[in-house]
Amino acid sequence: MIYLLNIFIYLLTPLGGVLSYCSLLRIAFDAIFGALLFLQCLLLLHMFVVMLP
Known about the structure:
Layout: H1 2-12, H2 20-51
Helix pairs in contact: 1-2
């Protein structure tokens, strides 16, 4: 899902000059989804530790 969004945003940027708006949008998406993935991993790790006998 994340990679599809990145590809879509890459396609929106023209091949000549990179639009700063689209590149900033892509960086923001990367940061947001990266943070969400990190939080999800932490939550899974926490649940795993809590479920240990």
